[in-house]
Amino acid sequence: MANSLSLYGGTYDYDDDNTSNLVGINYHLENNDFNLIESIKLNPVIGLFVTGKSASMLYSGFETNIGQDKVSLNLSSAAGIYDNGSGKDLGNDLQFKSEINIFFELDKSSKIGFGSHHISNAGLSSINPGTNNYFLIYKRGF
Hints:
Layout: E1 4-12, E2 20-28, E3 34-37, E4 40-51, E5 56-66, E6 71-83, E7 94-107, E8 110-120, E9 131-141
Antiparallel strand pairs: 1-2, 1-9, 2-4, 3-4, 4-5, 5-6, 6-7, 7-8, 8-9
């Protein structure tokens, strides 16, 4: 797939009292991959999400895709700037996001999927509650 855009929506902080809705967008620079080691190709990804409680995060990182057939696994890691709005205080503006997604190909240029990510400040602050989120994804190449 060429560069792509994905839209996602789901539940933010599903395992805590601060549960909220979540919507986001990612831009996948899949034409700009490089080899970490011979069998693992990484490509840049940038994105943004907003919750129903006005928390938001703008992030950038790298991702890899495993499998090229009808089903594929996508793993990513990113760092970003977080604003808690009226939502959960994560203890620091700088946050890290670990993500796993499974995609099902609809046609040559589009996929649907299910994903989950964990957001944490990795102990940079004494307050580090983190969040766990899950969502549905629509991804379209161009």
